[in-house]
Every structure is written in C-alpha cells, then in structure tokens.
Amino acid sequence: MTTSPLLLRRSILSRVAASSQSIQQIQRSSFVACHTPPNSSRFFSSSPDYATYDTSWHDPRNLQQQQQYFNGGGNGSNNGNSHAVIKNLAGQEFAHLDNSHHHVVNNNNSPLEGPRTSVLMELPDRVGALHDVLKYYWKYNVNITRIESRPVSNNNNNNNNGHSKFDFFVDFYGKCGDPNVNALLKALQQLTTKLLVLDEKEVHWFPRHISELDLIANRTLDAGTDLEADHPGFHDEEYRGRRAKLAELALNHRTLNECIPRTEYTVEEVETWGLVWDTMDGLWEKYACKEYKTSVNLLKKHCNYNRNTIPQIGEISSFLQLQTNFRLRPVAGLISSRDFLNGLAFRTFFCTQYIRHPSMPLYTPEPDICHELLGHVPMFVDRDFCDFSQEIGLASLGASDEDVLKLARCYWHSVEFGLCRGEDGTHKAYGAGLLSSFGELEYSCKERSQDEPYGTGEDGMPLRPVIKPWDPAVAAAQDFPITTYQPVYFLAESLQDAKLKMRKYCEDLPRPFFALYNAQTETVHIDRPVRRARGIPGDAE
Questions:
Q1: 346 near 210, Cβ under 8 Å?
Q2: Which of 44, 167, 221, 364 is deepest in the core (most CB within 10 A)?
C-alpha cells in the first residue's frame, strides 16, 4: 500500500482553492494543511523549524490504521502559531514501505534522500495568488515538502494596487537542471515579484537511516579498555583482557544483524551482578516509580531477569522492539553526547556489555552492564519514557554544539537522574543513575523534615538536594557534577508530564529542519535540503 504524492498535492491545492481568505487572513489564522493522524499529539511551534508527533502513530502495529487513514484522506488543522505552514510529509513517509531499506539509504533515487531545492517566492496578498502558483507544482509533477509564509517587513514602497506582499519559502524534490524543475521555475518567474533559489543549509553530520548508526557507534571516546589510573581494574590484566574481548565484539557488531551474539559471563561477573541486585532490590520497591516496577516484573517474566543470571541484551532488545519499538545496540565504550543522542532518534540505546570490577561491586566510574540493564532498560519498556527519550534524540539531529549541550543536560537531569511524583505524593526515581545507585537513590528520594539544613558536609557531599520542578529550559542551563551526588534534581509530575514539557522545549529550539522518524523504513525524514558537512564519520578530527 502506498500513498500517492499526487493525491496529497491535490488535497493541499483543493484546500487552498476552497479558501476565500486572502494570504493575510491565512497568516492570521495560521492555516495548516497537513495530514495529521487521528487522535495524535502533533504540535506546531512558534518556530517554523520544528514539529513533533505522536510516535505511537509510527508503530508498525498501527500500519492498518495508517493505511485506512491515508485511504480516507487527512484532515487540515488550525494551530496557534504565527506562521502559515503547509507540510506534505505523510505521503512521502509511507510511500516507501518496501523491503529495500535494510541498507544505508544513500541513493538519490530514494524519495527520502533525493536532491531537493529551496526557493523564496514573493507574492502579492490577493485572493487566489497562492493557488495560482501551487498549481504549477502540480502541473510539472514537483512534490513540495515544506511551504512557509512570512509577511514582507517593508511594504511602504510596494506599488501592487495597495496589496501587501508575502514571502513564501518552499522546499521541493528535484534540482535545478531537471526538465520539470526548470519548467516550474520559468513559470514561477511570470507569477512572482521575486524568485530566488536558496543554497542548502550546512549542518553537522547526522544519521538518516538506522544502519548509519554503525558509522558513529565505534567513535568511542575510549575503547572500553583505556582505563584511568584510578579505575579499580587499572592494574588487573585479566580484567582488562576481558574488557578488550567484549569491546571487540561490540566494534564488529552491525545494527541490522538479525541478532546480537550471546555473551557468556563468568562466575565472578555473575556474582558481582548478584551483589548489585541484592543491594538494590529493596530500594526499588521503596523508591522506584511505578512504571519501573511494572517493567521489572515483565523483564523477569520474559527476559530472565534475576539475581543469578546476567540477562542477554539480544533477548532484551527483541523484547523491547515488541513492546515499544526500542532496541539495544552494543557499544565498546563511551561515545560523544551528540552520537549518543542521535541514536535515541532511532529509538536505539547504545549499551555497554562489560561489568564493573569485582573489588568494588557497588561502585563504577563509568556506565556498565549493571547500570544499563538495572537502570535504563526497565524504563524502555514504558512507551511514554521511550517517546520522551526519542524527543531528545530527534532534537539533536543536525543541532548546533550549543544546543546539543543543552539537550545533554536535559538528558542528564531526566533520563539519568530524573524524579517524578508518586501516587502517594512522595518522590520516586525514574532516572537510571539513581535506579542503579543504592546510596544516591535513597539520598534523592527520602523524605526530609523542613528543618534539615542544606549545604555541604565534611566529605564534600551535599547534605540534602535542591528539588526543582521539571522545566527543560532550566535543566538545560543547570550544570552537574559527575563524581558526587547531584546537588539539584528535577521533579516531574509524571512521565507524561516530563514528555510533554520536553516536547514543547524541543519545539522552541532553533532547528535547521523538521525531523520525522518512520518506524517502517527506520529512516529519518527531513523537510528541507541540508548538507551534512561537519563531523562526517571517518574525517580526521
């Protein structure tokens, strides 16, 4: 089942033609002609550069609903932003549902990767002006991916029978030199008061297809074996050899392999796992959020979660894909914030497989299998949490270094150290850094009297934390320590509350493009031409 781009263009044109409003009226009412999934949470921000969506709509299990919807046509919707935006995304997303996507999508024949052109058209504000232009896109079979209008700021000198003017920024498939594009541009010159072909925007490299995660997964900041001198395993050659073997397995893994190879953990490694499990078990019951406890019970049932066995990440990944369309991807060591967050855009979590040194089973200076499987994985069984994580990931694609830092701080204060309000009003943990740390879990969640002082103790640890309401804009500016307990935690009212506020924050970030993830093709669709020019994998740093 595919959706005809022609049908979508006709839908857009018919809505514009049926409107008796002028361009200025369209601007005031923020008319949006787009295909919005029924009952979805699709928001368009005051920034024209970003929109978010209900990721459950892209779940493969909803394909029948999607097909029925597109067979019946979409519904236009109004919103409260200050831009008129027409988006034609859905048809291109679902017009590519075949079995050819299990490779790096990088050919110019793909509708998601083909060349695009951006133009600026200046039009007079009169009834039918936009319709007169759009019909030529239809005539020459040129598919629009984005159209956005802005009033021309200086209209004092125009002499267009008293009409004001509007600039329309249009992105479409094709490039100058294509016969149909050349014909379109020639026709537009006769209809517009100004026509400019715009250059591609240059952005930081980001993956477009899930297979491209392999290009960044091995860009480790350490190789999994480059231990610092103060690491408990620094002088243990056997431990370092074990880490090197696990790192090699991760480095050779490819995302689209059918399965992740089993890891046979040693008796000593399982004993370390069991000690961590026993220490945390009672604390989870007291301080973990309800979603975490529900998920752990499911993992016990389906993924062999128990104190006596370290679960296999391949089995966990398969289970998560069925539950929430999330997956685990082995990684040899720490990777950059940008690369890590980019993986979340594809609902993929980069997961280490080594375990902490047995001499200090309740301490680790870096993420290990205990942190990943006991802290992170249970939360990935919850759909709201997965959607929340993907919001951060999608916002990181092509983002500036400054915005990646803001998003990394948001991630730290939520996915790693986030709190939410329990049903009884007490503070519960959903952050993995808390759920895998016996000391900090209790420190962050236990109830305290109002008289208990703030400040720092003799050991340099804060006496009690500051609890702030979850606000991504505040979290994005809040720095954090990595070797001590957090002095500040952010409290969300619920995981849903955390997700919606994160979504709103991402909408307001200055975005180089709008990104949409298609779960069927495992591809990120963007709505305007960009050049992935900086930080290309394989380039010398």
A1: yes
A2: 44
Q: Is residue 292 within 8 Å of 435, Cβ to Cβ?
A: yes
Tokens standing for residue 387: 């959607």
Q: Name the catalytic one among 231, 376, 413, 525.
A: 376
Please indicate whether residue 103 is annotated as part of the active site: no
Helix (H, G, I), strand (E, B) or coil at 168: strand
Q: Which tens digit of pLDDT belongs to each residue from 481-512?
A: 988 899 999 999 999 999 999 999 998 898 88
The pLDDT value given to residue 525: 83
What CA dihedral angle connects 300, 301, 302 and 305, to 10 degrees? 20
Which one from 414, 436, 437, 444 is the annotated catalytic residue?
436
Q: Is 376 a catalytic residue?
A: yes
Pairing of strands 523-526, 515-518: antiparallel
C-alpha distances in angstroms, 540 versus 49, 199, 535?
A: 31, 26, 9
Task: Supply the pLDDT for residue 11.
Answer: 28
pLDDT less than 50: residues of the chain: 1-112, 155-158, 160, 223
Candidates 416, 440, 507, 522; catalytic one? 416
Q: Which of 83, 371, 413, 525 is catalytic?
A: 371
